[in-house]
Amino acid sequence: MTFYSAGMHLIKLLRRPYLLAATLAGLVTVSLAIFVFDMNHEDTLTRYQRGQALRVGYAIEEPFAMVEADGRVTGEAPEVLRHALRSLGRENVVWMQADLASLIHELESGRIDIIAAGMFVTPARAQRVLFTRPTATIQPGLLVRYGNPLHLRSLSDLAALPTAKLAIIDGSVEQQLAHKAALSDGQIQAFPDAAAAAAAVRTGLADALMLSSVSLHFLMPRAEAGVFELIRPDTARDQYSPGPPAFAMRLEDKRLRDAIDHALADFVGSPAHLELMRRFGLLADNIAVAPGAP
């Protein structure tokens, strides 16, 4: 369109006010759409720095994530994350509870921005999410009925007893380990949380519960004496190592991951970190993690 023809077009619009109004409305709509498009393409760290709250997903598993009587979310993962966010200059968080098995889907779908649930780093998960450096090193444990009537010391012992049942939390690392140890689908019973899984062992629906030893230590004092027994599994026989829990975020949120990693670098393993973790039953050997991201 030449300058002359553009000018003539504008004159025609001025002679027809309704056309001019429609054109201006269209321009405003396009501009607003471009603005919204740009906002939607800001990364999570940029939105957080502008004042938008981070939506943090968690699943109940003491002591990694739990809710106090007044509704405050606490535990190893929330408290360490709070420290990291404060070092970034703000602590603006909305906590969103979900089952462990659904947390990665919630993250990928955009309903949450970070997972803070003591989620272990695994190669399969690392293909879907971006992990920070680990915040701890956690050994597994086996919870059995008192007296250990089946003499269970490992997942291999369970696999050798076709009628034995193992309770796990759905979506957990222990679920993956059970399949790796050749337990059949019929032997593996998935539950949404530790309380339901422990109840299955108590009532005889399952013969053992495999979970982090720290979580099982939290469960033990709540049971009556003579109900449960805690076994440290023979990890060498089952050929697996302790798990490293970390925070997880979307693959495209590398800037957010790097910012949290930087905040964790001086904190994880420090006296202040150890003092905080003692509140949740974690000791120095649980925090002796190698520096750097996984």
Question: Which SSEs are present, and which pair or pack?
Answer:
Blueprint: H1 3-15, H2 17-40, H3 44-49, E1 54-58, E2 66-67, E3 73-74, H4 76-87, E4 93-97, H5 103-108, E5 114-115, H6 123-126, E6 130-131, E7 140-145, H7 155-159, E8 166-169, H8 173-180, E9 188-191, H9 194-203, E10 208-212, H10 213-219, E11 228-231, H11 235-238, E12 248-249, H12 254-265, H13 271-278, H14 284-287
Parallel strand pairs: 1-4, 1-5, 8-9, 8-10
Antiparallel strand pairs: 2-3, 5-12, 6-12, 7-10, 7-11
Which features characterize this protein?
14 helices, five-stranded mixed sheet, disordered C terminus, 294 residues, D-Maltodextrin-Binding Protein, domain 2, 3 domains
Structural notes for this entry:
It is a single chain. The protein is of the alpha/beta class. The chain folds into three domains: 39 residues; 131 residues, D-Maltodextrin-Binding Protein, domain 2 (3-Layer(aba) Sandwich), CATH 3.40.190; 99 residues, Periplasmic binding protein-like II (D-Maltodextrin-Binding Protein, domain 2). The protein contains 14 helices and twelve strands. The strands form three sheets. The protein has a five-stranded mixed sheet. Helix 1 crosses helix 2. The longest helix is centred in the first third of the chain and has 24 residues. It is globular, with a radius of gyration of 26 Å. The C terminus is likely disordered.
